[in-house]
Amino acid sequence: MSPLKIFLTFCAICCFLGIFRLPLEYYTFLRILISIGALLVLYNTLSFKQHYLSIIFLVILILFNPVFPIYLYRKSLWIPIDTITGILFLLINFLEKTIQKKEEEITEEASEHLRPIHQRTISRDRIINPKKTKEEKT
User: Fold this and answer.
1) How far is it, in rounded angstroms, from Cα 57 to Cα 6?
2) What are the helix (H) ranges across 2-133?
3) How many other CB atoms sit within 10 Å of the CB of residue 43?
4) Percent of the chain with pLDDT over 90
5) Which residues lie below 8 Å from residue 95, measured CB to CB, with a gap of 6+?
6) Are 54 and 46 in contact, with CB atoms under 8 Å apart?
């Protein structure tokens, strides 16, 4: 398991723990952790051109950012946000596995179709000159 998958799983677990009543310091830690996780996912989704996931994790980044925190002042509003965010982090782990498997299958298929150059025989690329050159005539 890659370090990114472990980190995103840790982010999801921390989101699920955020449902309970914990000290204020934990929620500050949670904001920092989820912001870092959202930035990593945002970078990966933009590099794979998955814009719908990029928008979702941009919203998560804005909600959980520790620099300009958004306070909703009610625990009942944060519980569904924490739950959905945790589920999204777990889904990203699952989606990365399927994306990587698809990419591996595509590269395997492409490598099967390509044979090494020395095994190829392409007769149309051979140059055959029926006319004799000046050196051959003399």
Assistant:
1) 18
2) 3-17, 24-47, 51-64, 75-113
3) 12
4) 56
5) 53
6) yes
- Give the per-residue pLDDT at 58: 95
Q: Is the pLDDT of residue 116 over 60?
A: no
CA 9, 13, 14, 15 torsion-angle sign: positive
Task: Name the more confident of 111 and 1.
Answer: 1
Who wins on pLDDT, 114 or 97? 97
The distance in angstroms from the start CA to the end CA of the chain is 73
User: In terms of pLDDT, which residue wins out, 124 or 53?
Assistant: 53
Residue whose entry in the numeric block shows the structure tokens 């998560």: 60
**Of 76, 64, 49, 56, nearest to 15 (Cα)?**
64
Overall average pLDDT of the 69-83 stretch: 92
Quick one: CA torsion of 102, 93, 46, 86, rounded to 10 degrees? 150
